[in-house]
Amino acid sequence: MSKTVTKEEALDYHQFPNPGKLSIATTTDLATQRDLSLAYTPGVAHPCLAIQDNPQNAYKYTAKRNLVAVISNGTAVLGLGDIGALASKPVMEGKSVLFKAFAAVDSFDIEVDETDVDEFCKVVKAIAPTFGGINLEDISAPSCFEIERRLIEDLDIPVMHDDQHGTAIITTAGLINACELLGKKLEHLKVVVIGAGAAAISCSRMYKHVGVSNIIMCDSKGVIHKGRTDLNQYKEEFAIDEEMSFDDAFRGADVVLGLSQPGSFGIEHIALLSDKPIVFALSNPTPEVFPVDILEVRPDAIVGTGRSDFNNQVNNVIGFPFIFRGALDVQARKINMEMKTAAAYAIANLAKEEVPKEVQDIFGGNVKFSTDYIIPKAFDKRLIVEVSSAVAQAAFDSGVARVSEFNLEAYKKELASLI
Predict the structure, then answer these.
(1) Of 9, 343, 359, 415, which alpha carbon lies 20 to 30 A from 190's?
(2) Do 12 and 68 reside in the same domain of the chain?
(3) DSSP per residue, 108-125
(4) Same domain, residue pair 247 and 329
């Protein structure tokens, strides 16, 4: 079990030795007059003109090729809700730290004090030339759907709202492996999704993409069906034909995906599931139902949560750093479904490999592919090789990479050198 941090420890961590979690370091020498002439005037004019002649040269002569913006307006921060742009800054700095620590990706956090979709998109589009990719973060639904859609359409660099797609990719990996262990097929699953926000919509879309067809989505008012008149366009996408009770949604279901709040479903609903159910209770930090209670009712279940102190943690950090790493390295114009699916299968496959000793040591040994281990641990250093290379290959194969050639094995060796 991980030790809970205290408020004092957390505040000290963010204050000392310097306020915040980020600083900027130079990558070139600046010790002599000649260095100064190269770094700034007059030497800097040459790369400027080269980029003016060919914008692609920005990837050659600037930090753009390895720089991601973490951008938020603070309207849906972790479990804190709408706390505003400034209060979201510690989270966005933290996201930038994860990019650097796990995938050697440089990142600036940018907090935009704007909730209007039009104005927010204008700001992001205006600063986009600085970056090789944009990670949208902690933006509330339904605005986040429209913001991401517009930016993907208007920009020629990868844009991804991680709260949507990170959860989708990791849970898809877990779903693939859980089905393999339980002898179930994706196309035969009945999936109940509790919650209808950004992550729920994205997860459901990705499940459909990998073969799941029977998805029942529930919001705070119950099952989403075509007879309801209060649905936005995103919920309508998953409206079933006829009205159904909450209990009937659970009855005989193979999978429950909880993306709601504690208590939004209970052990009485778990008891209604099919044999060998898969339950992802992802409300964080308090799951909808705790694993011990789920397993008491259904000991044959595979259970995942968002917490590090339980088995099968659904942690976006095993996805987004490596997805952007692969996208940046082939100078992708976007992150498409092919790339996200490749990431999910790479994560799923890694969980089946023998776990390295350093990871075993962190988690007390005996970590192996099983009902208690369907998702790799965040500290498995092989993630950067397997996930980033799969994403890069998918970008190249699907035609969104700018590079004209791609050698998978050579790229894997390059990634391995970063470990």
Answers:
(1) 343
(2) yes
(3) EEEE-----HHHHHHHHH
(4) no
By DSSP bridging, strand 159-161 and strand 106-111 are: unpaired
Distance of CA 88 to the CA centre of its chain: 18
Token look-up 């999704």 returns 193
Residues 405 and 263 occupy one common structural domain: no
Asked if residue 66 is part of any domain, the answer here is yes
- Domain total for the chain? 3
Radius of gyration of the chain (CA): 22
What is the set of active-site residues?
40, 95
Does residue 287 sit in the same domain as residue 381?
no
Q: Give this prediction's pTM.
A: 0.94
Q: Token pair for residue 19?
A: 């306020």
Assign 3 a pLDDT band (cuts: 50, 70, 90).
low
Containing structural domain, residue 351: 316-416
In a domain, 2, yes or no: no
Q: Is the pLDDT of residue 2 over 80?
A: no
Same domain? 265 vs 191: yes
Strands (E), 132-274: 133-136, 159-161, 190-194, 214-219, 222-223, 255-258
Of 79-83, 217-221, 242-246, 351-355, give the lowest mean pLDDT range: 79-83
